[in-house]
Amino acid sequence: AEDTGVRVELAEEDDGKKAAIALKLWVEDPKKLKGKYKESGAIEFTFELEKETPEGVAQEMVESGFFHESDAKIVGKSIRDRVALIKWRRERSVLAGP
Amino acid sequence: LCAAQVVHSAGRRFIVSPVPESRLKDQ
C-alpha cells in the first residue's frame, strides 16, 4: 500500500469471523498531512467491515478533532488500504479451506 | 506514560493511547 504517513494496523488478531474488527491508527509522518496535526497518539476503534466505509470513519475522526478536514481523504485511504488487505486475507483463507 | 483517553463520537468510541517511539518515523 502507498505510504500515506498514516499507519493503520489490527489492534487485535482477526479470527476471520467477526463483523467488526479492532483497528489502531497513528500518524507516522506528520509532514505528509496537509492540515496542522496535533500529536494525539494512537487511535483505537472498531470498524464494521460490511456496514461502514473508511471515509465515514475518517470524517468522524475529523469531527472529533483528531485531524484537519483537509486530511480526511488521506486518513480514509489509509483505513481503506488496511481494510482491503484484511478482506483479501479473509477471502484467501476461505478459499484455502479449513 | 499517559493513561488511555476515550473519545466518543456519534456512537463510536475512540481510544487514544501513546504511540511507542519505535513506531514513529524520524525519531
Count of helical regions of chain B: 0
Mean pLDDT of chain A, as a whole number?
A: 92
* Element-by-element helix/strand order of chain B: EE
3D shape of chain B = elongated
Helix content of chain A: 25-40%
Gyration radius over CA of chain A: 14 Å
SSE topology string of chain A: EEEHH
The two chains with the largest interface, and their residue counts, are: A-B, 17 and 17 residues
Low-pLDDT regions of chain A: none
N-end to C-end Cα span of chain B: 17 Å
Structural class of chain A: alpha+beta
- Amount of helix of chain B: under 10%
Topology readout:
The complex is a heterodimer of chains A (98) and B (27).
Chain A: E1 6-10, E2 20-27, E3 42-48, H1 54-63, H2 72-96
Antiparallel strand pairs in A: 1-2, 2-3
Chain B: E1 5-9, E2 12-17
Antiparallel strand pairs in B: 1-2
Question: Describe it for me?
Answer:
The model of chain A has no long low-confidence stretch (mean pLDDT 92). A 3-stranded antiparallel beta sheet of chain A has the order 1-2-3, with helices on one face. Chain A is of the alpha+beta class and 98 residues long. Chain A has 2 helices and 3 strands. Chain B has 27 residues and is mainly β. Chain B has a two-stranded antiparallel ribbon. In chain B, strand 1 and strand 2 form a beta hairpin. The relative contact order of chain B is 0.27. The interface between A and B is medium-sized, with 17 and 17 residues. Strand 3 of chain A pairs antiparallel with strand 2 of chain B.
